[in-house]
User: Fold these one by one.
Assistant:
Number 1:
Amino acid sequence: MEHLNTQALRDLLEVGVSLSSETRLDRLLDNVLEKVRKIIDADAGTLYVKEGNKLRFAASQNDTLQTRVSAVERGNPLLNMTFPISKKSLSGYAAVTGEILRIRDAYEIKKSEPYGFDRSFDKKNNYRTRSVLCVPLKDREGQVIGVLQLINNYNKQGKVVPFSEFHVELVRSFASQAAVALTNSQLTEDLLDSYYDTVSRLAVVAEYKDKSTAMHIKRMGMYAQTLSYQLGFSQEDAECLLYAAPMHDIGKVGIPDAVLMKPGKLTAAERKVIETHPQIGAKILEGSKSELIKTSRVIAMTHHEKWNGTGYPQQIKGKKIPLVGRIAALTDVFDALSTSRCYKNAFDMERVLGIMRSEKGQHFCPTVMEAFESALDEILSTYDRLYLKAEAKTKKLKIKK
Ligand code: C2E
Ligand code: SIN
Ligand code: SIN
Ligand code: FE
């Protein structure tokens, strides 16, 4: 009787962990395929996602050919490639019937079977597919949502052998876990899209009234996530900040345009008005059960407090300011300095960093500032990607008009 070794068990557990904490579908599918192949020792494998009456390649790996393609690499033409589901292919048969297929040798499938093996991939790549295991992924209602296909099972002696009954059981239990994760992450993807959309719309109403706001809120989230990783947050908590930080200025919806959009310096009275935006934001986000919104509320309320106690609205000081507020305070100023606003141009990076460093222990929490220094490369690459490159594109478009 075969049994799982302890490393394989650990891998299986690890998949469980990554399935629950992984919210991005692309990484998840790639990861699922890798882990299940490792556990079973399959040379190759493909994960198909069912979309309408088609199957789409989501991830594909082959050790012999040394290929690993996943939807993570967006440009790859293999991904997003779809084919109509038909009983004639192995994966299609599993998708249509919901049955598991275990094939000893793909080249010796009887003519009487409804399915057959398409050798064109093998021919093109000089590969020889022998044993195949095709398992449909089903959601809670038993509907097929994808197919997991494993190819060429190696035994301990390095020989290709058929997949065993034991593997079928293993993959079956595994597939249901993956299917739940797939359903969840599809939901999550959709929620996140609508979340970003909503926050951008609110931000456009609230602030710059133009498209650059969408990039601003993404940068805020990315910077905050980077700093929280650096400060030792768990992946889940760092991801929470990624989506909570963009809402810090939501209270600006309550500030009159004449003040918010004023091209020049604010008067003392106008400053008073603008300084109410943290409380307005906190009020908007009050009373939610969602951890994400709760964190957003804390950030909205405290992102203008300063480490030395001279901020607003409560003039709280040092560690009395929640850590997420101290993180947002720093990333907010970094973004305000390094990009252009209706009242100021972007400063060059040397000047930005000069101002930032002079505020360590004054405006900024020293620990958060140190995390910023340690993660500076990553911060600057986000800045490059989500500001410089994005701006250059916008300018080109404007010139064309
Ligand atoms: P914001 O533009 O997102 O700026 C956020 C924070 O970045 C500011 O908070 C401030 O701490 C920092 N910051 C921005 N520009 C500079 C700068 O040139 N030098 C330095 N050392 N720090 C800078 P603050 O001051 O509490 O302002 C909050 C919000 O009030 C700003 O958000 C902006 O919407 C508005 N605001 C501030 N000053 C002006 C202004 O002179 N004119 C206009 N129209 N709005 C202003
Ligand atoms: C495919 O599904 O087209 C690849 C191999 C097979 O399942 O026949
Ligand atoms: C908002 O302003 O309402 C959202 C966050 C931002 O633009 O900084
Ligand atoms: Fe603010």
Note: Residues 262, 265-266, 274, 304, 332-333, 336-337, 341-344, 355 surround C2E (ligand 1) (CB under 6 Å).
Number 2:
Amino acid sequence: MFRFSLDFIAIILAKNIFYEKEIEIKMNEVKQPKKPLVYYYGIVMLLMMLFNFLAVPWFMQRQVKEVDYGTFMEMVENKEIGSVQIQEDQNQIVFTDKENTKVYKTGMLNDPGIVERLYNSGAKFSGEIIEQASPFLNLLVTWVLPLVIFIGLGQFMSKKIMNKAGGPNSMMFNMGKSNAKIYVKSSDGIKFDDVEGVDEAEESLQEIVDYLHNPDKYREIGASMPKGVLLVGPPGTGKTMLAKAVAGEANVPFFSMSGSEFVEMFVGMGASKVRDLFKQAKEKAPCIIFIDEIDAIGKKRDGNIGGNDEREQTLNQLLTEMDGFEGNSGVIILAASNRPESLDPALTRPGRFDRRVPVELPDLKGREAILRVHAKKIKFSDDVDFAQVARMASGASGAELANIVNEAALRAVRDGRKFATQADLEESIEVVIAGYQKKNSLLTDKEKMIVAYHEIGHALVAAMQTNSAPVQKITIVPRTSGALGYTMQVDEGNHYLMSKEEIENKIATYTGGRAAEQLAVGSVSTGAANDIEQATRLARAMITRYGMSDEFGMVALETVTNQYLGGDTALSCSADTAAKIDVEVNDIVKKAHMKAMQILKDNIEKLHELAAFLLEKETITGEEFMDILNKDTADNL
Ligand code: ADP
């Protein structure tokens, strides 16, 4: 295993970096953000308000001519006034000429006899003087114009909506449409050659490609293809890539959708999307439908009242659709999930997803092949040893390896070089796992010394136990992840099994850091937090899952709940047994700690010498470490 004793702050984080889901770059065009209807209504309201407050009074104002009081008196004298209105609140008099064609206004003065004089002049006292002045204009401004604006806007909006309904992104009319992305085969499409380290999965999918090329060969004999193939495995192992490779090789349309895209706000929409997707697929058959993260809709339906109606309806529709077409119709459904145990049994039963293809983390050979595939795009110096890098990156997924290669290229650019080297790759493994080096570390000399002893403690205990893998590198340069130092161990080959002794040795190695601190500094620090966690987890697994305890024997006391996502476990035993497990776990770790102490006590001089060397150099290789260790042994002989 790619084991790190990352000290002083737990670095579970590294796994999170590893397992972060790659964001798929979608091949369809960028969508314009949709504007809700309310947006258009808002604009109409605003326009109407502006019109009422500004335009109408402006129209009115424009018709009225302002004159002085003298002119008004003159017109009264000459009996030239048609209608008149005294607007006391606005302190003005509005009046028209005899023919009622022009409107005038003037300011009011303290003129007590004016009403009588107006009356005598034959003027009419009117309420709505403007209306009388220009009834046609008035009608136009207050009735016709708003109507025209409304109708115009209505036309514009309905046209917009209808246009959208025809296009792929309709807001209202497209709610039940699948909007699946269709990948059309292109010359640079993904092929099986691009996906490495998953040979078994590839073989299984090759048959599907063959079927899509020659369906008759299968029909003749009466064989039918599985309707659905479920790709399961940890994140970043190439499930999506494999599905795309099937489409690339088979040269058929490829509908891709993520499980979560089916789930809408409205109940029933997801189901309608499923219907639409299958309808499109049947029209385009032979073709491939790929549903990524199918657990988003395919979760087990539980008996709880008030479950997720939308999700269940979508799942039901999917089940119905899968039953609805014949095995030989040419539509193959691929789905990917990293939580297969959470899928509804109805979905995984034969006749639906009949074939389950595990896509596991790559082994040593696979890792090397993946590194080589990704390195093709990058200029590397000739002496790069990919096998060595693959050994160092044990436990890494395809996505992580791709990231490591890219980080190496970035590092080369940063250094102003034209090609990347082995050192770039090795450094980028550490960057991907532990973060960048912290240049301005604020560690005191004492802290540095503690870290050096701690790391040498791990390495020494590991080296002294025959079954432990050799130490690759020890460093006390702090990393941005919070690790103040670490010891990297590298396995020489693939390891599929671990014996009880190997696990015990491993736990002892974990406790070696703390033991060294105790021996050299005489006190303990917070630095062992991550070691303690790892050691406890291993010891617990020995008892509850691996049947390695004398007391319980081969009884499963814990079950793994999500195998591919961190491997969380759930206890399945009585409280009494749980208490006994705790005691046993404690015993195992204590014994390992004592063993580590003993090893270090026996080699206390080497511990001091190596720690001093590490403190001076900050980073030492496994070879330098072994040289010092063996030199002493040779001298002693
Ligand atoms: P998954 O769907 O399993 O989470 P992806 O197929 O999306 O993972 O892989 C993400 C990226 O990781 C890919 O684009 C590719 O660059 C890289 N990758 C993952 N697995 C492999 C592999 N087996 N061979 C080559 N590249 C891989």
Note: The CA atoms of residues 477 and 485 lie 6 Å apart.
